[in-house]
Amino acid sequence: MRVLVLGGGGREHALAWGLERSDSVDEVFVGPGNPGTANVATNVALDAVDPEAVLEVARDRAIDLVVIGPEAPLVAGVADVLRSEGIATFGPNADGARLEGSKAWMKEVLASAGVPTAMHATFGAGEEDRALAYLEGMAGFYVVKTDGLAAGKGVVVTESIDEARDAVRSYLSGDAFGDAGRTLVIEEGLTGPELSLLVLCDGSLEGVALAPAQDFKRIGTGDTGPNTGGMGAYSPVPFVSDEIIESVMTGSVALTLAELRRRDIEYRGVLYAGIMLTPQGPKMLEYNVRFGDPECEVVVPRIASDLGVHLYEAATSRMTTKVEFSTDAAVTVVVAAEGYPASPRIGDRIEGLAEADAVEGVTVFHAGTRSSDNAEAVFTAGGRVLAVTGCGASIKVARSRAYQAVGCLNWPGITFRPDIAANAVVEEV
Fold this sequence. Notes:
Blueprint: E1 2-7, H1 10-20, E2 27-32, E3 42-43, H2 51-60, E4 65-68, H3 71-75, H4 78-84, E5 88-90, H5 94-101, H6 103-113, E6 120-124, H7 128-136, E7 142-146, E8 155-158, H8 161-173, E9 183-188, E10 194-202, E11 207-209, E12 214-215, E13 218-220, E14 224-227, E15 232-235, H9 242-262, E16 268-278, E17 281-288, H10 296-299, H11 307-316, E18 329-336, H12 353-357, E19 362-366, E20 369-371, E21 378-380, E22 384-392, H13 395-406, H14 422-428
Parallel strand pairs: 1-2, 1-4, 2-3, 4-5
Antiparallel strand pairs: 6-9, 7-8, 7-9, 10-11, 10-16, 12-15, 13-14, 15-18, 16-17, 18-22, 19-22, 20-21
Helix pairs in contact: 2-4, 5-6, 6-9, 7-8
């Protein structure tokens, strides 16, 4: 099987890495890819959001399966075009991708399906006064989200009503995220540990849950500072039992898939459920329509069965091959550029990549990097630069290996959290 992975970040590197190890896969292409994917696949110059460009590459390379990594191509309808031409595609059509493309629509789906979620309301441009009044009636823990795509950064979670007001004004005015923020969702803040559950969906009303993970959204130690696309993750999650997974699958995911079917949407791909385990039970924070990043970098390395088979079955028929996982744990630490997430500094030469990759049990996934013309050097090219994943017999071992590798890396302004999975090590013991 020849597989094309669309995208150029850490998630796509992890997918290409996993597919390259699959017995069912003969060759992997990544478009546009990055210097890291070039080590495990063939990079293809490609605009991943252009359906016709993707279709042309798929035909020219005799691709058997296209795996769509980021959300933007899904929202843009790339999967629709590929499927209409008979090309097996892992990722939902544009109708299903609205779950991530519009948070307001997602909340409507959750309400119709009866999925537990936070109290919320939606406001559009011209409704600033109503939105600010809604804040006044809340209990003092505020969540303000852009309706549209914002690369994981269009969320403000705060106990300060002044900060929440500022977010409302900057979003609705278009100053913060342009049209993506001119409609917003205000939610009550929920409390409890978070859970990331990636579910493979094959168009049926049931999904297959992958190993649970937990990620770290805020930039600073101890979950301080602004939200980011994710600063690290780990898997498995010691406090998440099989019973909790079953509760999420039956009480949230299955209901959502049934509601989508009622709307004539057949969902094929991965459904990322972001869950808050509240004292009242699991509540849905959000759905994403692609592998989470950096969750992908800890879940994929733990898959012991054939990733290519699972993705192809989900894309084309029904999943019949059992997904199996290693008993090893995985911890990934995101290493970011100075100024991330607001204004990351780019263009710095990355030192120590070879040394980091050589640490036992470690894989360095490239997220925001570029190579020099002669490919002898690698430079920072985005906010989240690398996702350093350590694997081992326990979370403690995996975490130690990941941070040992992080210690090999250097560039001006290098940034990372020192506390990824620290609490999980305590709970593991």
